[in-house]
Amino acid sequence: MTMTRIAAIGLALMLLIGCASANKMNAVQLGMTRDQVISVIGSPSSTSEMGNTQYLKYQLCSDWIFTDRYYVRLTDGSVDAFGRVGDFNLGY
Questions:
Q1: pTM (2 decimals)?
Q2: What is the CB neighbour count within 10 angstroms for residue 29?
Q3: Which residue range is the domain that position 48 belongs to?
Q4: CA 36/CA 78 separation, integer angstroms
Q5: pLDDT tens digit sequence for 19-30
């Protein structure tokens, strides 16, 4: 095998292993706590908070190469909205 082929295979494996699947979002339900969301999806890529509203932001694989940005919004400690960025015209 050539070094180029080995490098390409290694890159493909890293993409497959390092990317959480967007299918995990199907397990999120309204009313879940932050800890329950993290146990189902994993740690968010970033978080933000304003008042009693917290946003968990995720980069999840929609297929084996491409990622989409997803969010989970918690108000007063429980999930009240979740989905892809741009869903529901919520402005984030």
A1: 0.69
A2: 12
A3: 19-87
A4: 10
A5: 556 677 889 999
